[in-house]
Amino acid sequence: MAGIAGRGTGRPGGRWRGAALLAALSLPAGPHAGAADRPARAAPQAARLTQAEKLTLVRADIVAAPAEGVSIVTLPGVPRAGLPALRMALLDDAAAQPSPLALMATWDRDLARRAGQARARAIRAGGRAIAAVGGIGPLPAGRAYDGEDPLLAGRMMGEVAAGLIAGHVLPLFGGHGQPGADTVSEDRMLALHVALEQARGAGMLCHVPVVAARPCGGLDGQEHRLRDGWRYGGMVALLADRPTPDGTAPRRDLLLSALAAGIDVEGEPGAPDTALFGATLRQAVAKGGFVPPARLDHMAAHVMQSMDEAGVTEHPPPFGALRLPAPYRDPLAEETVAEGAVLLRNENTVLPLAGTAAEPILVLGAGAARAPAHAVAEAMGRAGTVARLAADAPEDGPLPPDVAQAGRIVILSTGPEDDRLIGAVADNGGHVVVVLLSDDPGRPMPWLDLVDGVVQAWSWREGGADILADLLTGRRDFSGRLPVTFTGGVAPPQEHLAGYKAFDRAHVAPLFPFGYGLSVRARFAYGELKATRDGARLLVAFSVTNRGDAPGRDVPQVYLDLPEGSGEAPKRLIGWRGVQLAPGQAARLSVAVDARMLGRWNPATLEWVVPAGDYGVSLGGHSANLGRQVMIHLPDMRVPGALPDDGG
Hints:
Elements lengths: L1 H4 L9 H11 L13 H9 L3 H7 L1 E6 L5 E6 L10 E6 L9 H4 L4 H17 L4 E4 L16 H17 L3 E7 L8 H14 L4 E6 L14 H7 L6 E5 L7 H13 L4 E5 L6 H10 L7 H17 L23 H8 L1 E5 L14 E5 L4 H13 L4 E3 L11 H5 L2 E6 L5 H9 L3 E6 L16 E4 L8 H9 L26 H7 L17 E11 L2 E10 L5 E3 L2 E5 L9 E6 L2 E3 L4 E8 L6 E3 L4 E4 L2 E8 L7 E7 L2 E4 L8
Parallel strand pairs: 1-8, 4-5, 5-6, 6-7, 7-8, 10-11, 10-12, 12-13, 13-14
Antiparallel strand pairs: 1-2, 2-3, 9-14, 15-16, 16-21, 17-20, 18-19, 18-24, 22-23, 23-26, 24-25
Helix pairs in contact: 3-12, 4-12, 6-7, 7-8, 10-11, 13-17, 14-17
């Protein structure tokens, strides 16, 4: 397999590129080396399958479910060999996939794992056993769906996947994205490595509109890294919304591109034999074909390895008639809102809100925010705060009379279409709190300086009204931290890289920085920062004290400043700890950091390399507020890239 990664680069689909791929695929394909090589364990089982069974195992069937925008993907399995047929629900529309930002904003790994376990129960109850896990993946899906930092995204979504595996569901990291060049693949690959450490057996998913050249973006040419460097034995799946175009030559080139990206399973709508991994692959591995049969053996072994390590081979779900996936009601939705809502602004101590019969809190929401506003107003009443729902506000024209008379107003907003309303209400003179109910880290806030409070509550979820009311009225304190930089619609060049590293490189301050989040009454201070080396690890210890007058949860963050001339971003997140503290309480915390987070991947030696030099270790409440720093000299360190054999 390593031969594929060693090819040159050139025009995708070009004749010479195709010839190079043919030569690479013709090389002998033996088992991967290494004692920790997990795919080799499945190789003997795969060898016992017939070639027809292997071809069945690597081809997924996709059919439309009895609901618009949903398809059902089926891995047919091989019953004779004890490999069950498995299903997953696939959202056809990229915009329909749920954003993971609310969960990431909790920075709570235990909650993420429990969220995966709860989701696994619902998936298996529907007769399915495979699920896509967003937040990381081979293809970029947009800032509302991708994690910004590889450590935070990798650990949080890795915990979700670990929870799914604990419930005997096979997770696939990735989702709907656009194939082609991917300039941020290094951070994305690091996030995948971090996640796979915690969720051994998880696969990867590239969900695309149609199979094209470089179908998995950054994975193209990375098979040497995945299989020989990481010793990754799981499956890589490619699913398309539309059939592959006809034509012998184009289909041959597309097949080569898919194999170059390490694809093990391919599926698309239509008859199974017309799929890329249907007749095209069958002819390619036939006697005299251009794909060696040993390559098919490895593909089948990767599929079997993921099925086995996720527990779905031993614990298959019931496989009944095809039916519509039931809407998922997250039992942890309230907990996610409680920990993930982020307080961005609290001027004039507008929060906590206190409404009385003489001066009730006015709650306002237009359009899609109308129903959530009604729910929050009722919930505030149940919490003991007098609140009422404002009259409908017209898109154009004067504000309702009750708005002009209100002293404190909560406006729920689902998007920029509410900006005119927010600005008009704020100009009216009352104290305004805006609650954002969307996952839009690039949203401009032209009214920001006119309002007193801003809360990022993420996409509206049923059951969150009571928790949101508790946060607004002070029965709970805010503890969420931004998992992405809020740019305000203005970002450095290459907007898709608009994370904290890009802002650092450009020396530009974002609207709200990565890791940012306020508390209403708790006040946290840091001290006694120490950093020591323990072999290939860095041990960071520090203290945190709550100097406020109420209990609260803090998320101290540790960043690394790289030596000058390294060519890297000025700093990177290397660890964090969540801690709940009573007023006046102090805690001594520590974070262990391995060499991956200190250095970078060396594709030539297949290891993580930390150059010798002086490194700064910084501590603070977010990426733009690092008040403590110590320096430490690190020697040259090299750490093998293999994933742990017993899980992360």
